[in-house]
Design a protein that fits this description.
Elements: H1 3-37, H2 40-45, E1 48-51, H3 61-71, E2 77-79, H4 84-94, E3 104-107, H5 120-124, H6 129-145, E4 150-151, H7 175-190, E5 203-207, H8 226-233, H9 235-242, E6 247-250, E7 254-255, E8 258-259, H10 264-274, E9 280-282, H11 291-294, H12 300-310, E10 315-316, H13 320-330, H14 336-352, H15 365-372, H16 376-388, E11 390-394, E12 408-411, H17 419-422, H18 437-442, E13 451-454, H19 468-476, E14 479-485, H20 506-514, E15 520-525, H21 533-538, E16 541-544, H22 552-560, E17 626-633, E18 637-638, E19 644-652, E20 658-668, E21 679-688, E22 693-700, H23 702-705, E23 707-708, E24 714-715, E25 719-728, E26 731-740
Parallel strand pairs: 1-2, 1-10, 2-3, 3-4, 5-6, 6-9, 12-13, 12-14, 14-15, 15-16, 18-26
Antiparallel strand pairs: 7-8, 11-16, 17-19, 19-22, 20-21, 20-25, 23-24, 25-26
The protein binds beta-D-glucopyranose.
């Protein structure tokens, strides 16, 4: 190391943390000084968040009232105001307020701002943390260029019920994978440090338990053991908090009888005390007021009191804080110190973003134009989209398709669809940018190659459609590619379904086309795991494409023609039928496990369905094949302070270069609390050329063997562990035993 490097090292190790803490002090001091100047009304003003649809619309009484509230310092944040022009205009009103406290502009930038990326569940199927982080970064960059400071993402709710429409917005069923994806997304949105004009504040939502809404019905109650809460649902939130997520959002559901919004166990005890979280908590839309119909608060005033006491810092659209908090403080029901704490948390973020130095920092017209027209974003979106595709079946290697000499018939209601490709939660999408599957396939073929097309049927509705034309073109083709699934608005918020089969007549269309005897490749597009038993049994190939965003058509065509070798793996279990739900891979053995599927009498089984899913968590095929051999453990026994290295040889035994997601699962054989049959504890996405081979290693330490024991302490218990390496949760290739001493 030369002198220059030595000095740089000293600065990094010693001076940077000091400088960071000095800057922190400065912000804290600035917050305190500002707070001293604020009246109670101005403080409460910071705790209100309004939706801005009307504030930028035509003149109306609502608009006048809102503008007056902003001018009088009664609003801390606006949601749904976007674009440099509008954010500038509204921020200018805030600058007329007595203390000139800037507004925070927030928006649901869930999977892209202008460039729409795959829905979050699809991206989770990539198991590619760098790609996921980059996707969030581009979304943040575009949003920040359009005046946005804060996105209500990522949703880090673990979801194990595909009836729940919001399963599309998260990372799937697994706590380990979900926690890593939560961190990737937070870092992608926020960048290294808040304040960059290519980053926005992230928001870990919905705290907590929302994904476990009873019977998969949105906004429903949640009832779960403490054990389940700590082991399955809280870790992604903790991971997001540790990664520095700027804000949390609470949730609509109750948790064991207490609405999350009025839940001080969650927000005060766990989040703010135990985890020492310094950011702020925003309520979900109207969730403070909703504690009244829940039967937890007498009226809006009571709801406001319960929410602020429980640790909800900002009121999104209930207007209960605005209407009642001042009175509650004056009556002595709410200590002013609680208001001060909430205000400080919010002001701190405004300082960190640099808004006090320049309230228009994010509202620069030139940057908006440059960033939103950056053609490179499309290329990134296409790359993320093709990584998100999961190949479920490829009988006789019908895929990849050849580009020449093959007559293809494209059949199905989603072949030419554009809007559906973007899925739910788009905030500024430009539908003219979307590539349909038809366009994607056409783009791969020589100009004069004939491409047959027929819609076949609609997605919704049960009118008997006429399949004649579809069957006619199927008869003329060498191969049929069908595009089937849901419309964009069949999953997402408030889109729970009891029947998650393919809607309408689509499966009938498939069966009719299949009966022509032509090979059929089915591309399924949806915002959730669907049930499609006939297709699973009879299709020659199945490509699960979710909703892939603007570049959907190109990305799917890349996979269909082998320009990209699929590498996605399911982040969530696909059941065979609705009766199996909730179904996941972390199930328990029970006292009566089914060992022989033929003999299920008095076993933990169904008499009308297997226990196993249609497709298991972690499953996904490639155009090449991989072999797993030579498992070794560096030791068969370890003490709590040791590490054991698990290694094996991965070989690409097929004809194509490709990536394999190798998965490490662990099973604690006997414990003070019964453990699932397996739990994901590591994975790697490994690229190998055809014929290439690599040694892959995972390190097992105490952490990987720990769980919440019978006293709810995170600990590893001595005993035997099964170590499993697999290509899917139900396709374990190598196993070994080890002992924790
Ligand atoms: C959703 C939140 C979202 C908020 C603001 C609510 O209905 O549950 O996830 O961030 O609306 O749009």
């Amino acid at each position: 190391m030369n002198n220059k490097q030595r000095i740089r090292l000293i600065i990094t190790i010693f001076l940077m943390p000091l400088m960071a803490s000095a800057q922190k002090k400065t912000i804290s001091q600035r917050v305190d000084s500002l707070l001293r100047l604020m009246t109670l009304d101005e403080k409460i003003g910071q705790l209100n968040q309004y939706s801005g649809k009307q504030v930028t619309g035509p003149e109306s009484k609502v608009k006048t009232d809102l503008i007056n509230d902003i001018r009088n310092g009664r609003v801390g944040s606006m949601l749904n105001v976007k674009g440099v022009k509008d954010t500038r205009e509204i921020q200018a009103v805030a600058m007329q307020s007595r203390l000139k406290i800037p507004l925070l502009f927030s928006l649901d930038v869930i999977h892209g701002y202008k460039t729409v990326f795959p829905i979050p569940l699809a991206e989770a199927a990539s198991w590619d943390l760098d790609a996921i982080r980059l996707s969030a970064h581009i979304a943040a960059k575009e949003a920040a260029a359009a005046g946005i400071h804060w996105t209500f993402a990522p949703m880090v709710d673990i979801a194990r019920d595909p009836r729940w429409g919001r399963i599309m917005e998260g990372a799937g069923e697994d706590t380990y994978l979900g926690s890593l994806i939560a961190v990737a997304r937070v870092k992608g949105f926020q960048g290294e440090q808040l304040g960059g004009t290519d980053a926005v504040m992230a928001c870990a939502k919905h705290f907590a338990g929302y994904g476990a809404a009873m019977a998969g019905r949105d906004y429903n109650a949640v009832d779960m053991s403490e054990h389940q809460l700590w082991e399955t649902y809280l870790p992604p939130f903790k991971a997001a908090a540790d990664a520095g997520v700027a804000t949390f959002m609470n949730s609509f559901n109750t948790l064991n009888g207490i609405p999350a919004t009025g839940n001080s166990y969650l927000q005060r005890n766990i989040l703010k005390r135990k985890w020492n979280y310094q950011g702020f908590v925003v309520s979900d839309w109207g969730s403070i007021g909703e504690m009244v119909p829940w039967g937890f608060a007498n009226n809006d005033a009571d709801a406001a009191e319960k929410a602020i006491k429980a640790g909800s810092d900002m009121d999104m659209e209930s207007r209960t804080y605005k209407s009642y908090l001042a009175k509650l403080v004056k009556e002595g029901k709410v200590p002013e110190a609680l208001i001060d704490d909430a205000v400080k948390r919010i002001l701190y973020k405004k300082f960190e973003l640099g808004l006090f130095d320049n309230p228009y920092k994010f509202s620069d017209a030139k940057r908006e134009a440059d960033v939103l027209n950056d053609g490179g974003h499309k290329t990134i979106a296409r790359n993320v989209a093709r990584k998100s595709i999961v190949l479920l079946k490829n009988q006789g290697n019908v895929l990849p398709l050849t580009k020449s000499k093959t007559k293809i018939a494209l059949i199905g209601p989603l072949v030419k669809s554009k809007r559906d490709m973007d899925g739910s939660w788009t905030v500024n999408a430009d539908t003219t940018q979307i590539t349909s599957l038809y366009e994607g396939v056409k783009g791969k073929l020589a100009k004069k190659t004939e491409l047959l097309y027929e819609k076949g049927c609609n997605i919704s509705g049960n009118d008997k459609p006429d399949f004649t034309e579809a069957l006619r073109i199927a008869g003329q083709a060498d191969i049929v590619v069908m595009a089937l699934g849901e419309t964009w608005d069949m999953s997402g918020e408030a889109k729970s379904r009891t029947n998650i089969h393919l809607p309408g007549q689509q499966e009938a269309l498939f069966n009719a086309v299949k009966a022509t005897g032509k090979p059929v490749v089915v591309v399924l597009m949806a915002g959730r795991p669907l049930i499609f038993s006939d297709i699973a049994a009879k299709a020659n190939a199945i490509v699960y494409a979710w909703w892939l965003g603007d570049e959907a058509g190109n990305a799917i065509a890349d996979v269909l023609f082998g320009d990209y070798n699929p590498s996605g793996k399911l982040p969530v279990t696909f059941p065979r039928n609705e009766g199996q739900i909730p179904l996941g891979y972390t199930y328990y053995n029970t006292g009566r496990p089914v060992k022989n599927p033929e003999n299920i009498i008095y076993k933990s089984a169904y008499i009308d369905s297997p226990n196993t899913p249609q497709y298991a968590f972690g499953y996904g095929l490639s155009y090449t094949s991989f072999s797993y051999t030579d498992l070794t453990l560096s030791a068969a026994k370890m003490h709590h302070t040791d590490n054991v290295t698990v290694s094996f040889r991965l070989t690409n035994t097929g004809k194509y270069a490709g990536e394999e997601v190798v998965q490490l699962y662990v099973h604690d054989e006997v414990a003070s609390v019964v453990r699932p049959v397996k739990e994901l504890k590591g994975f790697q996405k490994v690229f190998l050329k055809a014929g290439e081979s690599k040694t892959v290693s995972f390190v097992i330490n105490k952490e990987k063997l720990s769980f919440y024991n019978s006293k709810l302490q995170w600990a590893a218990e001595p005993g035997n562990f099964e170590i499993m390496i697999g290509t899917a949760s139900d396709d374990i290739k190598l196993t070994a035993e080890m002992e924790l001493l």
